[in-house]
Write the structure tokens for this entry.
Amino acid sequence: MRRIFGWTVMAVIVVITVFPFWWMVRTALTPAGDLLTDNAGLLPRDPTLINFARVLSLTSEAEARAAGGSGAHIDFARYILNSVIYCGLIAAFQTLFCAMAGYAFARLRFPGRDLVFAIIISALMVPPIFTLLPNFVLVKDLGLINTMAGMVAPTILMTPFAVFFLRQFFLSLPRDVEEAAILDGNGPWGIFWRIALPMSRGPLITIGITTTVWAWKDFLWPLLVGRGEENRLVTVALGVFLQQSPNTQPDWTGLMAASTLSVVPVALLLIFVGKRLVQSLNFTGSK
Amino acid sequence: MSSTKRRDDRRAAWWFLVPVLAGFAVFYGYPAIRGAWYSVTDYTMLGTPAFVGADNYDKLVHDSQFWRSLLVTVWYVVLNIGSQTVLALLVAALMHRLTRSVVLRATLLLPWLVPNVTVGLLWMWLLDTNLGFVNHLLTTLGIGPVGFLTDAALAMPSIAAINTWAYAGYTALLLYAGMLQIPQYLYEGASIDGAGEWRMFRSITLPLLRPVLALVLVVSLIGSFQIFDTIAVTTQGDPAGATRVLYYFIYQQAFSYFQMGYASAAAVFLALILGVLTAVQMRLLRASTSDLA
């Protein structure tokens, strides 16, 4: 009895979680002209793919206009590719560089080690908005506005959290394998590449996935630095799309088609690495 | 350990650390100093910053828009953290007592994976006064269309609700992970003694979850104070400043009015609030690992 009640509440919560996504897809499949009359029912009366086609720039300007578009050039295939490149670059390099530093802080011996580590960790207390304004000025002065280099610059080399997280992990690795490798004549590099990295696949993937998700959601920084069409990310493109759409009568079918496209890659991520992602959400430090 | 003589990996360490040290110096250290410097200058991004002493701070303290934005932010934080924490606790406790399903957990995580911009757009559409699904539903039930995002009194609660939808599942999973650390036999024993679910939640789950709950709360608070994306997409600070939170205020000063110095002073203020919260977080992080590990 109690379990039935519990499951009922849970079912309501799942419906509230999932339904908005369904309505997004449903709207994307509805012809723009039908929005006023066809607004009940789980499926549109005359499903169409035209909204997806026009936000992927697969239609002519006239066709897009006829289907409810503003006529502005929109190509979400390109924006998604940009976002994938952006996330891939940041996740791959940030994870590698932070693993190197984390390993050095955990295992190597050099003067000033703990002091340098403490300084880096203290940056966790500096909120992004504080460094955002000067970083924008810096990237602008370097002439990197509207370039991928400018967009990834602040996060591709490190985040204090990733250094902290990976150092904690390397500290927990058993030392004996590494000691044996030293006796075999391996230097720090050899041990790092051949032993420490392969032993830490789990945490490396965890931090890589988490970084990817946050990078996928990034909005303010890429909006400031990468508004240009060429390197525009999905999130920025959605914002620009909304701005181009008339305030009184937004292009909802097109916007929902574009929104759906922005969800597809993370939904795929959830399907393929969902288990690891779900299990990595753990603050208690057991993994 | 075989090597008792002090090893010195100075040269190797340097190569291990170069990328991170460079990234830290250029994009954390240097801008932090520059940000503090901007806050005592008049700077419009053209020309060079001109030192003006404490003028920006003086102006800030007398700026009613700034105080309003601070108030609006706190109002949002209270609404969002309140609803999000209660809901997340409920979901986590339900999952903890009902199932270990990974599919269910992944489903609840979905809104968190989606960009805030998409979440904002999606709910802007669902809450649209004329065509939105929610208002369609309300009209069917005989309650007139409600301007969720256009009514000054409703806009902030609506945005808090939107972000609760986006983050409650994620928060619930963090709390759930904490609940998994609680030994199962405690529940079995209580059950034999005839305790109900609510009693077990109050006497076992909540007290033993406290370190994790405190940590999750502080992390959510820090995130909540930095709300920006959802507002930038849906209301842009409107109606009449009812949703102009601190982050949006700073953004407008910097990039709409090009008052970099003034914006930096406001950012220093927000940084102080967040700095205190983060310091608390790091304390709790140490406390929670030693308690439960």
Remarks:
- Residues 89-225 of chain A form a domain with the MetI-like fold fold (CATH 1.10.3720.10).
